[in-house]
Design a protein that fits this description.
Length: about 150
């Protein structure tokens, strides 16, 4: 089945030309930095690194640079400093969270006072989390009571 109505991802097997047209239809002022997201703790510095690098977060200090993050059942997180001189996007799936993607991103933001926005994400009524996932977070300060179902 083609994803030709709004697909922005090149990694799902949709027609590349269609995906590029969908991306162009966003009318961004400049081409966004699109991450090849791999559920990791890798943070890309969009101002100095190879933009084809696989990563799950991206940071910029360049005014006007557009950062993109794609999610299905993962959580998109947007961050900026209070001054607005640095911005970041994070693809926060459970594997990336367990590996420390948020902490790795915050570390790249030079100890500044930050603001964060959480985007839409899947909830427990639609996504069963098993004990294998829960066990990844035991002892890390995350509460597993009430949020996870045992299999």
């Amino acid at each position: 089945m083609p994803f030709d109505s709004a697909n922005l991802a090149l990694h799902v097997g949709d027609d590349t030309d269609t995906v590029l047209k969908n991306r162009a239809s966003l009318n961004c002022p400049v081409d966004p930095v699109w991450l090849d997201q791999i559920h990791s703790d890798i943070v890309l510095d969009a101002d100095s690194e190879n933009l084809s690098l696989q990563a799950d977060a991206c940071v910029t200090r360049t005014p006007g640079r557009v950062l993109a993050v794609m999610v299905a059942d993962c959580l998109p997180i947007l961050m900026t400093s209070e001054k607005g001189d640095v911005a970041a996007v994070i693809h926060a799936g459970w594997r990336g969270l367990a590996k420390g993607i948020i902490e790795a991103t915050v570390a790249r933001l030079d100890g500044q006072k930050l603001m964060a926005w959480l985007g839409p994400a899947i909830g427990p009524c639609h996504y069963k989390v098993g004990s294998d996932v829960r066990d990844c977070f035991d002892g890390t300060g995350f509460s597993s009571t009430g949020s996870f179902d045992d299999e």
